[in-house]
Write a structure and sequence with these properties.
Helix content is 80%, strand content 0%.
Length: 74
């Protein structure tokens, strides 16, 4: 039962991370872009991918603990 609830967040995070990592790779492959723009274009999506993974881990912890409704905290 809990495994079914984890499938959607994992798939969404995987797609988002692949998109962001692909964007980082594209930034560094393009030769006509200045180096500073490459670094900024690479760091920001990489940071977003890291944050997405952190949020996924927190969501998995919530699902495993049985707390489904975040609004119950407030």
């Amino acid at each position: 039962m809990k495994a079914k609830k984890m499938i959607a967040p994992i798939i969404v995070t995987l797609i988002l991370c692949l998109y962001n990592i692909g964007f980082v790779a594209l930034c560094f492959v393009a030769e006509e872009i200045p180096f500073v723009v490459k670094v900024l274009g690479g760091v920001i999506p990489f940071a977003l991918a890291c944050v997405s993974i952190y949020v996924l881990i927190e969501r998995i912890k919530e699902i495993r603990s049985g707390e489904e409704d975040d609004l119950s905290k407030y």
